[in-house]
Structures are given as structure tokens and as C-alpha cells.
Design brief:
Blueprint (H helix, E strand, L loop, with lengths): L1 H39 L8 H9 L1 H21 L6 H17 L3 E5 L18 H6 L16 H11 L3 E6 L5 H5 L6 E3 L6 E4 L6 E4 L14 E5 L6 E4 L16 H10 L2 E5 L24 E5 L12 E3 L3 H12 L12 H5 L37 E2 L1 E3 L2 E3 L12
Parallel strand pairs: 1-2, 1-8, 2-3, 8-9, 9-10
Antiparallel strand pairs: 4-5, 4-7, 5-11, 6-7
Helix pairs in contact: 1-2, 4-9
């Protein structure tokens, strides 16, 4: 018994000694890295003999620090915005115009870069949300309902109207493609739409388009908006797909439409996207085909993207500038956004009187200032649009295996 007790004490002492040795080793390594880093910062001519000896003694540490610096420099270059000069930009846009004219099935992928002109920040640009957070800066919140479709949004709508663009796949949640007049059967909003809330207790899922940002109370894994379905009284949830979540809604995500469009595409035009998220969606890139049978890729972005080496053409310019030149090359007039014709005004389901105070976000009001479309004065349950696919959700899966409750 005494032997067992002695063995236990011995093993504990050994573990403690081992842990202490590991801590001391880490501390020693940290001091060596700090010393070598300090020496490397000095110009070679200014280093003393002792400092030169330190570098010789710790060659592995020097090599590791040099590798880290190379990686930092590469990352910094990738984050820099590059602008083509005016002549090069025009030349590249001419090449893009030829590709657009010759395309049989052109699909457009859009990211946050097409909405920066509407004062909506992007994520990875110099003033992007994540860039600012990485620098330890605070990011001011803004009501995105005040934004309006940009020149790029309106150009895309016109190109679709002229049957040159077949489908648009967007990572944006700002709803500006919908508000530009682009039909929903030609749109996949992969990460949701901030103006749409749904009742997943109804079958098929019932959709409510609102004139304000419905995501005021929602966040990662918390999607309840606080309002109730007019028919079943189930809690409504937003349609946003946050990082770390998997989108399961048929609409407005429309993954089926996106995958079918990618399968048919012979040209893909990427506008204002870093592609760091989109690249992970294998069904959008036809990578199971041989390189010669994949869609031709054209990219418009100011920063590096992981698809640059696969692109037929990379245009370093602002989306509005590029699209303006493209429309000129194609001899198309750019439509002007008119709030009076904003589709969201006619699609919106009015709030019931008891729901008027359920949010504090800016409301998209008609240009004449009428408020009758914002509230249902009678308080009677208006039938909301059931998601079935296309413009009204036609093609929604008939038999859902199980209902999901709002989280």
C-alpha cells in the first residue's frame, strides 16, 4: 500500500517536472525569437559581432522568422487595392464586352463590392468591416435600408432584360438586386435578404417581404424577429445565413437556381467579390469538368482573389466604372433607379397595428410619402406570399421531411 502511495506521488512529481520543463522551454524559445527578431530589424552593417553570432547560432529561428515575414508581405499585397490605368481599363472592358456578346449563358456572381457605392461597407477592403475589426477599430452600425441600388445593380438588371445575363448569384443580404427590378426567378441570394422574414411552421414556408431591415434582433443561430405569422401565429425568422451556418431555405437563397445556372454557364462574370467564400461552393465552379470545358471566368475586383489565376481576364477597377464602360461598349442605356417603381413597395406585406412598434429601423417609404402601404389598418390577417419558387417561389420542394422551428 505504501509502495502504491509512493508511486502515485512519484508520478505526480514527474508530471509536474515535465510540465515545468515544457514551460521553461517555451519561455526560452520566446526569448530567443524576441532576441533574433530584434537583431534582424537592424541593418546588417549596424549589427555587432555578438549579434551576428546570435544569428549564426539560431539559424532555424532566423529561417522561421524570414518565412513568417514573407507570408505577411504576401498577405499585405493581396489586401492592397490595385487600379488599372484608364487606357488599360478601357482595353480590358472591350475584351469583356466581346465575351458578353458571344456568351450563350452568362451568369453573374456579385459580392459586397457592388454595393460600396451605396455607402454599404464591404468586408475585406481597406475600410472593410473585417479589416477594421482586425486593426482593433470599432465599426459603426448603419441602417442599410437607406441604401438604394447602384449603377452596377441597374446595369445587371438591364443586361438581364436584354437576355444577355441569365442568372445572378449574390452573396449580399442588402436586397438591392431585388429592389433594382431583377426578377427573383433570375436571382439567388445565397446568404439571405434582410427585407424578408419567413414562417417555417407553415408548409410551404410562408414569406413576408417588409419595407425595413428585419434583422434588428437576430444574430448567429438566433433568427427569431419577434413577429408572428398572420395565419398560424408561428414565430417569424429572418433569412440571413451567417458564417458558420448552413442555409436551408428554398427562397430567397435559391441554391437550386444557382447550381442549374452554373451548370449551363459558358461565361461567369464575378463583380466585387473576394471569392474567398464563393470558392468553397463547388457546385458554382464546375471543377469536376476538365479545364477546357469549364465556364470562362472574368473577374472585376480591386483586390486579389483566389480565382485570379484561373480567370480569362482580371479587371482591377471599381464595379460602377467598369459596368458604365461595358454598357457603353454594348450600346445599352443605363436605367436610373426610381423609388416609385421599387418592386419592394408592391411586394411588401403591411404590419398589423400591434406590430408597428416591433422594430426601430428606417422604413422605405413611397416617394409621395404615403403611409397606407406600411400598416394594415384593419388588423386582419392578410395572406402572405407562400414561397413556391421563381418570383413567388415557384418550384419549392413539395414534401419537406420535417418542419423547423424558429431559433
Amino acid at each position: 500500500m505504501a509502495e502504491e502511495s509512493g508511486t502515485g506521488v512519484s508520478s505526480r512529481a514527474e508530471r509536474k517536472a515535465l510540465e515545468k520543463a515544457k514551460i521553461l522551454q517555451r519561455e526560452s524559445e520566446r526569448k530567443i525569437f524576441s532576441l533574433v527578431r530584434r537583431v534582424l530589424k537592424k541593418p546588417e552593417a549596424e549589427r555587432s559581432e555578438e549579434e551576428a553570432a546570435v544569428l549564426l547560432l539560431h539559424r532555424d529561428t532566423v529561417e522561421e522568422l524570414c518565412k513568417r515575414q514573407v507570408r505577411r508581405n504576401v498577405l499585405k499585397r493581396k489586401q492592397e487595392e490595385v487600379f488599372d490605368d484608364a487606357e488599360e481599363l478601357k482595353s480590358k472592358v472591350r475584351q469583356l464586352a466581346v465575351a458578353v456578346k458571344q456568351a450563350n449563358h452568362l451568369v453573374v456572381y456579385t459580392g459586397a463590392g457592388i454595393s460600396t457605392a451605396a455607402s454599404i461597407p464591404d468586408y475585406r477592403g481597406p475600410n472593410g468591416v473585417w479589416t477594421q475589426l482586425q486593426k482593433g477599430r470599432t465599426v459603426s452600425s448603419s441602417d442599410l435600408s437607406k441604401a438604394e441600388p447602384t449603377l452596377t445593380h441597374m446595369c445587371i438588371r438591364m443586361l438581364h432584360k436584354e437576355k444577355m445575363v441569365k442568372h445572378v448569384v449574390s452573396q449580399n443580404c442588402d436586397g438591392l438586386h431585388l429592389r433594382s427590378g431583377l426578377p427573383r426567378n433570375a436571382l439567388s441570394e445565397l446568404h439571405g435578404n434582410m427585407f424578408i422574414e419567413v414562417c417555417v411552421s407553415c408548409s410551404p414556408v410562408r414569406e413576408y417581404v417588409r419595407l425595413f431591415d428585419v434583422t434588428e434582433r437576430t444574430s448567429l443561430h438566433r433568427h427569431g424577429t419577434g413577429r408572428r405569422c398572420n395565419l398560424c401565429c408561428g414565430e417569424l425568422r429572418d433569412t440571413i445565413v451567417h458564417f458558420g451556418e448552413r442555409g436551408t431555405l428554398e427562397q430567397p437563397l435559391n441554391w437550386k437556381g444557382a447550381a442549374e445556372a452554373a451548370k449551363k454557364a459558358d461565361v461567369i462574370l464575378c463583380l466585387g467579390s473576394s471569392l474567398k467564400v464563393l470558392k468553397k461552393y463547388a457546385c458554382l465552379w464546375c471543377m469536376n469538368r476538365s479545364a477546357s470545358k469549364r465556364p470562362k471566368l472574368y473577374i472585376v475586383n480591386l483586390q486579389w482573389t483566389p480565382k485570379d489565376d484561373l480567370a480569362m481576364l482580371k479587371i482591377n477597377g471599381k464595379c460602377d466604372d467598369v459596368m458604365s464602360l461595358l454598357m457603353e461598349e454594348l450600346n445599352f442605356q443605363i436605367p436610373v433607379y426610381d423609388r416609385a417603381e421599387d418592386p419592394i413597395l408592391s411586394l411588401a406585406t403591411p404590419l398589423r397595428p400591434e406590430e408597428v412598434d416591433s422594430h426601430s429601423r428606417e422604413v422605405i417609404a413611397p416617394p409621395d410619402g404615403r403611409q397606407d402601404c406600411l400598416v394594415n389598418p384593419g388588423g386582419q390577417a392578410e395572406e402572405a406570399t407562400a414561397v413556391q419558387g421563381g418570383w413567388f417561389g415557384r418550384g419549392y420542394g413539395k414534401g419537406r421531411k420535417k418542419k423547423k422551428t424558429a431559433s
